[in-house]
Design goal:
By secondary structure, the chain is α/β, with parallel strands linked by helices. It has 3 domains: 73 residues, DnaA, N-terminal domain (GMP Synthetase, Chain A, domain 3, 2-Layer Sandwich); 146 residues, 3-Layer(aba) Sandwich (Rossmann fold); 169 residues, Chromosomal Replication Initiator Protein Dnaa, Chain: A, CATH 1.10.1750.10. Helices cover 56% and strands 10% of the residues. It has 20 helices and 8 strands. The strands form 2 sheets. Strands 5-6-7-4-8 form a 5-stranded parallel sheet, sandwiched between helices. Helix 17 crosses helix 19. The longest helix is centred in the C-terminal third of the chain and has 20 residues. Bound molecules: adenosine-5'-triphosphate. The site of adenosine-5'-triphosphate has 18 residues, from helix 6, helix 11 and helix 13. Keywords: ATP-binding, Cytoplasm, DNA replication, DNA-binding, Lipid-binding, Nucleotide-binding. It comes from Thermosipho affectus. Pfam families: Bac_DnaA, Bac_DnaA_C, DnaA_N. InterPro entries: AAA+_ATPase, Chromosome_initiator_DnaA, Chromosome_initiator_DnaA-like, DnaA_C, DnaA_dom, DnaA_N_dom, DnaA_N_sf, P-loop_NTPase.
């Protein structure tokens, strides 16, 4: 009888709706003429009752008789909120380290991002009120900055808050490695039950990857059902996420869609000033003015400023004509590659380039050194001797550090992998912003 009801329903429901809403759908029990359906969560239950009540009722009555009835139940998620127990102080869950510089204070607000900014400020006061928030814009317009600013704010104002920030690509990689290692349940527990706020950046990476979309779909539903905040960042609108499960798209659309527009020249100038302030570097206004005329996007402004900082650090001077020649490639300045690498590391690990080449051994500095050496040898193909020169360390120390990082990677250490990705991302940003 159960099978008959399911088959009859499937015939009456479009394939698209079936795939969106009925994949978890099952019959738990039939008691006399009362059918108890079961679905994955309360959100789907709610949708089915609102949208498909009539069809389900008709099918049940056709098969079991006119006086038959039904109800939809959902699987309870156990211990969503109390898993750590009241006396155990929960530690922040940071899947990828948030960039501490991505704060609301460091964000320039103008007409182009005012709405997005206000929504995120509201969300910082009432997480879960607008849920989900789907933040989209062209590349480099500040989505990651804004989303991480919310994460940083929540962590600071409530140290018990568990913030999970990761790109959809990281989500997918972790999921595949959990499947491979047979611990998919741990993976699910981590994201579905532990996180109080889930930020998924660059959702567009999952285009065409249905298995990861399905996993994310269930994660999304569980978190949403628990009333916890979800933020999705994307470089396009939900409708433009071609080849995404339609059920995912409809989840995104049911939330608040927030767009960051393109900043104008004045905004770009202010962003340039803010970046200099964040980097504790003084660059003349006329140079920043020049940059904001040349580049129309904060990421490019950021890249250009990093390049100027690298030059200023190396040569101790900078003026408008030098800036123009550096940025327009009129005359190539000598390569300041090493400095650039150290700048990138310093930015990510929140220290200075001088710290990295010093003998200081504080945790973040040692980490920056070690990961930077690995990156230079393995990704940039520099010789261990050259790397020793850049980092002002002996050849054997480079070899040892590279081995250590290799081991961490082989052991599946996510933090190291994420740092390497961040270096990659930042150095690409650099490459974008430069014409050298
Ligand atoms: N309004 C702003 N105020 C200050 N800095 C900004 C602003 N918008 C962007 N930036 C800076 O520009 C750089 C690029 O921003 P971000 O990475 O957040 O963009 P994105 O939209 O997430 O890019 P992508 O689409 O590639 O993921 C960052 O260094 C960020 O701090």
């Amino acid at each position: 009888m159960k099978k008959e009801i399911i088959v009859a329903l499937k015939e009456k429901i479009s394939r698209q709706n079936w795939e969106s809403w009925f994949l978890d759908f099952d019959i738990r029990e039939i008691k006399d003429k009362h059918v108890i359906f079961e679905v994955g969560n309360i959100f789907i239950k709610d949708r089915l009752e609102k949208k498909f009540n009539k069809i389900i009722s008709k099918v049940v009555k056709d098969i079991l008789g006119k006086d038959s009835t039904f109800e939809i139940t959902y699987k309870e998620v156990k211990n969503v909120k109390s898993e750590a127990g009241p006396l155990i102080k929960k530690r922040p869950l940071l899947i990828t380290p948030l960039n501490p510089k991505y704060t609301f204070e460091n964000l320039v607000v103008g007409e182009f991002n005012k709405f997005a900014y206000n929504v995120f400020i509201e969300a910082s006061k009432k997480p879960g009120f607008y849920n989900p928030i789907f933040l989209y814009s062209g590349v480099g317009l500040g989505k990651t900055h804004l989303a991480q600013a919310l994460g940083n704010y929540l962590l600071e104002s409530n140290p018990d808050m568990k913030v999970a920030y990761l790109t959809s690509e990281e989500f997918m990689n972790e999921m595949f490695s959990a499947i491979k290692n047979g611990n998919i349940e741990d993976f699910r527990e981590k994201y579905r039950k532990k996180a109080d706020i889930l930020i998924i950046d660059d959702i567009q990476f999952l285009i065409g990857i249905k298995s990861a979309q399905t996993e994310l779909f269930h994660t999304f539903n569980t978190i949403h059902e628990a009333g916890k905040q979800i933020i999705i960042c994307s470089d396009r609108t939900p409708q433009e996420l071609k080849d995404f499960h339609s059920r995912m798209i409809s989840r995104f659309q049911m939330g608040l869609l927030v767009k960051i527009e393109k900043p104008n020249k004045e905004d770009l100038f202010k962003i340039g000033k803010k970046i200099c302030q964040m980097k504790h570097i003084e660059i003349e206004d006329k140079i920043i003015d020049y940059i904001s005329n040349v580049y129309d996007n904060p990421r490019l402004i950021h890249g250009a400023i990093l390049k100027l900082i690298a030059y200023k650090n190396l040569y101790g001077k900078l003026n408008l004509s030098i800036a123009e020649s550096i940025l327009t490639n009129v005359s190539k300045p000598p390569k300041s590659f090493e400095q650039r690498l150290l700048e990138i590391l310093a930015d990510i690990f929140d220290c200075s380039p001088e710290d990295i080449i010093s003998s200081k051994r504080t945790k973040n500095i040692s980490y920056a050194r070690k990961v930077g050496m690995y990156y230079a040898v393995k990704k940039l193909n520099l010789s261990t001797r050259d790397v020793g020169t850049i980092f002002k360390k002996s050849h054997s120390s480079v070899v040892q550090n590279v081995k250590q990082v290799e081991k961490l990677i082989n052991d599946g250490n996510i933090i190291v992998k994420n740092y390497l990705k961040q270096i990659d991302k930042t150095s690409k940003t650099f490459a974008h912003g430069e014409s050298m």
